[in-house]
Amino acid sequence: MSAAESRRANGARLDLRVVAGLVQPGTRVLDVGCGDGALLELLAREKRVDGRGIELSQAGVHASVARGLSVIQGDADTDLADFPDGAFDHVILSQTLQAVRNPREVLLHMLRIGGQAIVSFPNFGAWRARFYMLTRGRMPVGEVLGEAWYATPSIHPCSIADFLDLCRELDVAIEHGVALGRDGSEEPVGDGRRANLRAELAIFALRRR
Q1: Domains of the chain by range and CATH?
Q2: Could you give the count of Cα atoms lying within 13 Å of 111 in the half-sphere of its Cβ?
Q3: pTM for this model (two decimals)
Q4: Helix ranges, the chain (H)
Q5: What's the confidence (pLDDT) of residue 64?
């Protein structure tokens, strides 16, 4: 059984398993936009982390609290400024970057609050999204957007190439970059050219220089 098949068999969303693999056991973790708490629960169970979460939706907060997790309702765009410097070892933003109003500022706060920032996002530069636009002339609906363009929470979609440009602009060190294919295959992001075309999802571990 491959590593990707093993992660699928364990029942967690594929990218959450990859993110969890970047987190050190017993560390302090803040999950920004934690949703229903699935990742925090995974980290608490398998990594014994001291985990906290912040989630915009009341439904997500209720679901997380029902799992026994420490999660508060809050907005990443405004409330991260209230967290002190260095309060956490890892700050995670899982498939939420494209849904915040100010991705650049959110990323800077994550790097201020935590020793390491872990970010995952759908890659809008993938060939399927490009082909959909080319052949249909419409925003792609499915695994990239998830919903019709007028209903999706994605307000700042980006590609892997866009994100690498942002990291260079902010002078952020990329410790680890993984590109995930639709079939669960993994490859290093590298210089981003191949990954930007092939990957459906990207996961980065970042630190301040």
Answers
A1: 3-208 (3.40.50.150)
A2: 19
A3: 0.87
A4: 3-9, 14-21, 38-46, 58-66, 76-79, 103-113, 127-136, 160-170, 193-198
A5: 97
